[in-house]
Protein 1
Amino acid sequence: MQCNTFLNYKRKWFFSFLPLGTLLLYLISQLDRPHEIDEELAWESAVCKNYWEYQHSSVLNKSKNTYLITWYQMSSYIRWREDAVARDFKQCKYSNCMLSLCPHSANNSDAVIFHGRNIPKTLTYKRPPGQVWIFAEDESPLTYDYDGQHWRSENWRHAFNWTMTYDKSKTDIYLPSGELWPKKVTDRKNFYQIAKNKSKTAIIISSHCTTESLRMEYVKELQKYIDVDVLGTCGREWHCGKAWIHDDCFAILNKSYKFYLAFENALCRGYRTEKFFENFNYDIVMVARAGLGKRDIIEPRDAYISASDYSSPQQLGIYLKQLSENPMEYAELLQQKSNYYYPGFGEFYQRALCDICERMNNQDKYRRTITDLVKHVDVEHSCKKPKDVEPEPWSIFSWFNKKW
Ligand SMILES: *[C@@H]1O[C@H](CO)[C@@H](O)[C@H](O)[C@H]1NC(C)=O
Ligand SMILES: *[C@@H]1O[C@H](CO)[C@@H](O)[C@H](O)[C@H]1NC(C)=O
Ligand SMILES: *[C@@H]1O[C@H](CO)[C@@H](O)[C@H](O)[C@H]1NC(C)=O
Ligand SMILES: *[C@@H]1O[C@H](CO)[C@@H](O)[C@H](O)[C@H]1NC(C)=O
Ligand SMILES: *[C@@H]1O[C@H](CO)[C@@H](O)[C@H](O)[C@H]1NC(C)=O
């Protein structure tokens, strides 16, 4: 099952290239496959070890009214966050649920969570009567529309009970990449001095260069007005942190840079990059470019600058330039944002788990079948093309790179 997923991914990638050096690319794709498969297998044997242990414990004894919930393939987004993976139901109002990350427990589960992009072509077991199916995705529909293919098929599109996504406007179980919470105790820092000490203007760290949101095109426009250092695949090398754990090299956000450009790879309703949240707690002013428009924004508004308030990168660039030359005004923004913090993804994942367990205990209240998942996802109306920047002239590179 796991191997299949990767093959499918490669196959798509491979076909979009067909007219070009097919053989060479095929060989390259063969080269990087073993690593991914090894990682998958290692993960599976680790999580299934636990599962076989559970099976021999009394926890799975159904007479005790415990609901077993299985992740058929946990998304790497969650998997790579230790703070999330360690969560369970102990602190929930309904705590009689158990989570298994081992796909082999799916046939024996009361609910199964499927990761949209990685839904397999066919299921390896027969759905037991009454088993609840949850469709989970952390990326924008543009991504799983592109990367995944099976969720749209007849086998799957009429079968799910609930969704678990970031799109509050329609999801059953709300799981955002983050939220900003008010601080109980405010910081006493010399924000003016912090502002004075910063010598650089803006930074963007990103790994995908050709995006639906025309992120790099937008950055190029901004660079006519302010300095933007581009780090990651689309710019200078950046090897800091590991699997989303930030290390000391992120200190440059505290010390050197004034603005962090947390720009989305796609402009979709409710979709905000985890980078916005995961870099929020540094002493840096965040600039977001996300969502469907002016009303689809991250709350609270006074915690950051939103590109949606500016009609063009030029307007935003002029504002950022003026701010960067005015430490007093800039320090006020730092002060304002310091009233909020990002508590870590684990909090939101925990809330979603508790929500699932409450639903399992009250299935009649939440009973539902999504009659058509494709209509429900509604890619066309969930995302928009950017209007504030023009695409680069068509090039073969932008075509085959087209991916989040
Ligand atoms: C499951 O529960 C039943 C009744 O409460 C009990 O007789 C049985 O021994 C339990 N099985 C395990 C494996 O704990
Ligand atoms: C579920 O599948 C596993 C193998 O993957 C098997 O050992 C087990 O007996 C099955 N359980 C049920 C309830 O069908
Ligand atoms: C600003 O820089 C000076 C000189 O490097 C340093 O002593 C001071 O601690 C810095 N202040 C803040 C608030 O970072
Ligand atoms: C950056 O500043 C924040 C907030 O003051 C602090 O908690 C954090 O430890 C600093 N991080 C680094 C890498 O210097
Ligand atoms: C889940 O969907 C199935 C298939 O449509 C249905 O039989 C079942 O009642 C649903 N359960 C819940 C809790 O919505």
Protein 2
Amino acid sequence: MSTSETVIAVSGLGKVYQSGFQALKSVDLQIRRGEILALLGPNGAGKTTLISIICGIVNPSSGKVTVDGYDITRDYRRARSLIGLVPQELTNNLFDTVWATVTLSRGLFGKPPNRAYLESLLRDLSLWDKRNEKMMALSGGMKRRVLIAKALAHEPQILFLDEPTAGVDVELRRDMWAMVRTLRDKGVTIILTTHYIEEAEEMADRIGVINRGELLLVEDKAVLMRQLGKRQLIIQLQQPLTALPAAVAGKTVELTDNGSTLVYTFDAQCEQTGVGDLLRALAREGVEFKDVNSSQSSLEEIFVGLVHDSNQQRSRA
Ligand SMILES: Nc1ncnc2c1ncn2[C@@H]1O[C@H](COP(=O)(O)OP(=O)(O)OP(=O)(O)O)[C@@H](O)[C@H]1O
Ligand SMILES: [Mg+2]
């Protein structure tokens, strides 16, 4: 579905808040039409700031953003009308009903009324029964669903979801994933932030990692997992060892678990993984195995590693 056509172009984007805090440092990012891009980063990394600038809620201090060719400052209304935003914080008027909330939002973007569309939207989000309730009479998860309905009320081409599944139950999370996929299949470009890495792993075509206002990388999920993923061979021994056998000295092998497990870390991309050599060398020394397993690092481990390395580089600089 995704093509390489850029729909949002962010260049040299910086943000210094009035407090003097620099939340973004010259971010460059091209978002492709029709993709699902997941932005990952620790609390305070700058994810919401980046999204808020693209959506015209926060002013940039430097740099430029275009949405489908429209400059977010010069052509604010055109750019904004292409975007739906599900904000991280609840911002609805609690005295409005669900129905009023979505119809108002559609009207704000100058779209003609479309009862049938809004009805199907509310039905998809299991909110139809609640359409005449005031917002304050809804549960937290329901309020979050209304935010989604509100963001989609004007049929945007691009949807930003800022931590859409924080605090929602498992069922709603699954429903939301399904909804996001349906939207993507209709050609909507989706940018989401999440602290649930399995969500990014499950949903995203590409992953961006932000730390302390810097975009550390943006990469296809599959490439990222192949390039940065490490594989490990975990060998449980019949008899614990007190030291590494001489035959494996110099290899990336560690003795753990009080000497009862050998862990060999290798690059899964390499033609020669060295697994065969290692096992033969151990057998020659008479080391016997109880069990052999292999594991592949998860996106979570890759992410934690990236953020950790970038923090270390900063503290050294
Ligand atoms: N209005 C503001 N004034 C001053 N500083 C701000 C403002 N909004 C955000 N910041 C600071 O900018 C940094 C980035 O905040 P931001 O909300 O973009 O982070 P985030 O990546 O979305 O974090 P989280 O995962 O917690 O949502 C933080 O250090 C935050 O304190
Ligand atoms: Mg945020």
Protein 3
Amino acid sequence: MKFAPLLAAACLAGPAFADTFEEVKITAGETLFEAECRRCHATNPSDPSYGPPLENVVGRAAGSYPDYDYSIALEASGIVWTPAALRAWMEDNAGFMPGTKMRHVGISDRTVQDFILAYLQDISPQDNTTISE
Ligand code: HEC
């Protein structure tokens, strides 16, 4: 699979820095996020970002980041970014929400989704304890 070298690298790096499998997932997720999402998404709101910053995205209402110029589709969708919604979005964002201006990413591998989700939850300290699938 396309991500195997990245995952292997993240897992090898894991034991030195991570105590639990959850931390290994977060580390792998960060590597995958860097490869797949970072070029358009800052995690730190003060960094320039083509897409909306994704800090605290888990549990956030879609299209609600202040002052970001969303598509009408996303702004009007009325959804909340639960893990299930984020999986559907990573898998086929344009199919999940026709009219979005985010380019299709197409991450259908459940393990890759898991890792990116673990990372997104890790950078969502406001909400990650209250949202499950
Ligand atoms: C080519 C640029 C690009 C890439 C790569 C990209 N995104 Fe996006 N993303 C966007 C844009 C632009 C939007 C705003 C879409 C809209 O307004 O319709 C967006 C919106 C989002 C949103 C909605 C946020 C909100 O505030 O409602 C999420 C969640 C998201 N992206 C996650 C991801 C993840 C996870 C990845 C990597 C797997 C990713 N994106 C990769 C450009 C990108």
Protein 4
Amino acid sequence: MSLTYDDGLNSQLDNVIPDLDALGLKATFFLTAENAEARLPDWTRAAEEGHEMADHTVSHPCKLRRYTAADFLSREIAPAEGFLAEAHDAGPHTFAYPCGMEALGPGSQWQGRARYLADLKPTFLAARSVDGSPNDPRRLLKSRFDLHAFEPTYDHDDPRLGFAYVERAIHAGAWAILVFHEVLPRRKGEGDTSIAVHRRILQWLVRQPVWCAPMRNVFQWVEARETGAPPAPFQSTQSLSFPPPSAKRGRNRVG
Ligand SMILES: [Zn+2]
């Protein structure tokens, strides 16, 4: 499973990373460059500690009909990639759709989706949405730009929906990706998680039979297994959860 935190928020630096570090967990942070740039040194330190810095555009646009593919690439994606490089995450990066919108520019949904994919495919390993059931590893290469995820505390500051979603993934042998936004001393509004509830989720997670790692690590590991390529180095430094089953050595080949 993967823990993901969106928008490059200060509360994630102050209230999430210390709790992850205390449990030896590594996570994915989808940075919006405009939010994150004021604390670039702190994000850089997090990247150097093994957390994944990932792309959530420069300005987090939610109304996308006015963009061409070229505009979106030059204004939102390329500069955000430059920002991630400054934060010492060399990539390849994963992407999260701002506001979960997966179509770009005018025309039909299908045209908008094709336009968005044309921007994403040359740059990103995979892209995450904000809903759907846990991801089936056997279908991952086909759905790499539509990875499902779940926001367990979006409506209620309660850990139980998160527990249920991860348990569903465990029973299905699937990959659960959880999404969080602000993590604050007290929930102030929709999408916020209190520090106490977030901590309860982490403390529960490390007792479950799951491998918890950043999205990039999990995706690359599954990709290597599915394509028979040599597996990427297993980078998790986490000691409290199970490592993934080792790749089938007999299938390893180059090309
Ligand atoms: Zn966002």
